[in-house]
Write a structure and sequence with these properties.
By secondary structure, the chain is α+β, with helices and mostly antiparallel strands. 42% of the residues lie in helices and 26% in strands. The strands form two sheets. The protein has a seven-stranded antiparallel β-sheet, sandwiched between helices. Strands 1-5-10-7-8 form a five-stranded mixed β-sheet, with helices on one face. The longest helix is centred in the middle third of the chain and has 22 residues. It starts with 9 loop residues before the first strand and ends with a helix. 24% of the residues are buried.
Length: 333
């Protein structure tokens, strides 16, 4: 158990079944009633909401957008049967967050943090965060029966490995961040919000399972120490924001990471499958493609938005990534 907890901290202990029943238990603790498959907080409790999604037997998810008015300790007791829980979250806090998985204790520092964990449900998990913490993210629960019915032998090999190591830590890449943002920022006026959210949750799951097929366990991120892991995630965020400022440079990234340039380049390529500039440029071009498709900007405006002073250089970079010029994109759609 987490030590030195004040008596007044709120505690929520549960066993994970499906996401709806988890939400129902949480609502009961708070003295709230669910409205359909959603829980909204009163101003006395906090702000925001949680919504559970049932896809089919054995596959459920929960979308989380909230901040509570009190400190909470969540304790997930081990399940009787094996299952896989996927947590894809963004935390913003001015206080540290305490996390424990069986005997592994981790403290997340204050600030903004993206985290992706794929966890064996038969482990004990504790998670303490304060009233200063804004919680935004998606959890997906795969029950064992669903796993055995829907996944092939190659992925099952990886799942079996998960039962041995208890959790995978993964990097949230720019595409996953964008999908998560789309899920969490659907306007109330969206004409088919639930269908929209469901489709993106399934896309996230699809990409994670696709990564399982490519997974080289001998070089998996869980072999990187926690301090380096979170540093690399911080570098990844830098490389996918503020494209208009251009590539920040290896020297600057090395100073931010407190790593030597050679160590940073080696660990980043091992973790993300490509070099720092290549990763920056690939994400930059995919943002360009999204902006062109949106029809909100002209091609020259897209180039300027992404830091190009010379439109010819922008067109050359775009053609290298997509094998067509920006002006030819409409023809291919």
């Amino acid at each position: 158990m987490l030590k030195d907890l004040p008596d007044e901290i709120k505690k929520f202990s549960y066993k994970q079944t499906d996401s709806y029943n988890w939400l129902k238990q949480f609502a009961g603790l708070l003295g709230c009633e669910l409205k359909g498959n959603s829980l909204s907080f009163s101003s006395a409790l906090g702000k925001g909401d949680l919504t559970a999604f049932f896809f089919e037997k054995g596959l459920t998810a929960c979308v989380n957008k909230y901040q509570l008015n009190e400190d909470y300790l969540f304790t997930r007791q081990p399940t009787d049967k094996f299952g896989v829980i996927i947590y894809l979250f963004h935390f913003q806090t001015i206080d540290p967050i305490e996390y424990k998985l069986d005997d592994v204790a981790i403290n997340y520092d204050r600030g903004s943090l993206y985290t992706l964990r794929i966890i064996n449900s038969q482990t004990l998990q504790q998670f303490k965060f304060g009233k200063t913490t804004a919680v935004r993210g998606i959890s997906i629960f795969l029950e064992n029966e669903w796993i055995e019915k829907n996944l092939n032998h190659r992925i099952l090999d990886v799942i079996n490995y998960l039962q041995e190591v208890n959790y995978f830590k993964e990097f949230i890449n720019a595409k996953q961040q964008r999908l998560m943002d789309e899920i969490l920022n659907v306007p109330d006026t969206h004409p088919y919000a639930e269908v929209y959210i469901r489709s993106r949750i399934l896309r996230i799951l699809d990409k994670l399972l696709e990564n399982f097929l490519k997974r080289d366990i001998s070089e998996s991120p869980e072999r990187i120490i926690e301090e380096d892991f979170f540093t690399l995630q911080k570098i990844e965020v830098i490389l996918t924001k503020n494209f208009d400022e251009g590539f920040p440079g290896i020297e600057k990234l090395s100073k931010v990471s407190l790593m030597s340039e050679s160590k940073l380049k080696k660990l980043f390529k091992q973790s993300f499958g490509m070099g720092l500039y290549e990763y920056f440029q690939k994400n930059r071009m995919h943002i360009a493609r999204e902006q062109i498709i949106s029809r909100k900007y002209s091609i020259s405006e897209v180039g300027i938005n992404l830091g190009y002073q010379n439109l010819s250089n922008f067109s050359t970079a775009f053609r290298k990534e997509f094998n067509c010029l920006p002006s030819e994109l409409d023809i291919r759609l």
